[in-house]
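Pilot study result, target chain (371 residues):
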Amino acid sequence: MQQVKVAGLNPIESADFYYLRHYYFYKMTEKNLNKPNSDIPSQIVMSGIRPTGMVHLGNYFGAIRNYVKMQDAFECYFMVADLHSLTTHPDTKELKSNVRRVLAENIACGLDPEKATFYCQSHIRETGELYLYLNMLAYKGELEKTVTFKDKARQHPENVNAGLLTYPVLQTADIIMHRASYVPVGKDQEQHLEMARNFVVRFNHRYGEIFPEPHAFNYNQELIKVPGLDGTGKMSKSENNMATLYFADEDDMIRKKVMKALTDQGPTEKNAQKPDYIENIFMLMKLVCEEDVISKYEDDFNNCSIRYGDLKKQLAEDMVKFMAPIRQKTNDILANDAYLVEVMEKGAQKAGESAKKTMDLVRNAIGLNYF
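Predicted structure:
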């Protein structure tokens, strides 16, 4: 096989072998995760949640729903990434309330602090130390090529800080602090995860095999991208608020947003192809409506008899029915500050124990064990 140098790769390992190794990992992961009584050792899952806005429908179906499934099958660490938020939100006046809301909303959506380790990034002091060591293995050129860095630098030219540049390094420190193998991420984070693997390979090659290489994992299913109500993209914290359904929205606000969803006069030919913005509305229906309701409006569309006003009223009521209980549970949790403090303290203790074990291994591997 041709010897080709791959970033962070041991020179004796060919590129062919490198990619074969990753292919083998994916196939074995897929095989074992589909076996309900698999006897493979428990694997570790890690993911972070930025406290920079309220949880919305896209967060739930794109990530949180998977977290809830994972906590029953894996050792899970779910982190509120308050330090990451400082790279783009240096004003911290609302940080404390945002962190509490993120904790409450995720718990209300089904995340169980008794099953998963749910903690705040800033409570794990070891993260900063590991971040420092990994920075010695990260290169300015590769960091500057990161798509998210270029996007954020373009959006905030007055705040192109070193933390923004080294965001993937801190993200790697978060992941490997618990020696995680699986990371539930979306398409926009795949480049960061590839960089994390490079940093891990470099560390292991230089200091010894300490860390597993982290890989994306979402139950072998493509992540659901929940469309915005304006027909222009996905629901997002940073885009049009009226096109995004937040779990904090009151019932009437949910109805108002759904009724403003982009539609048209309806099809003029039977069995016509749906425009993207109409397809988006049907996708939202598939998330919260009964199958017979969806079938009725599919038939109406195909028969050119669809009444979008009725469809949106139905979708709005079903959306309220789905979202209102989560909002109420969130409000109940937010009203119980002692409980939230208990969640953070327990999470910090459990994540801290894991971090201490990892950093003992790291310091010994590097040779920072002078006494």
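One observation from the pilot: DSSP finds 15 helices and five strands in the chain. A full batch analysis is planned for the follow-on phase.
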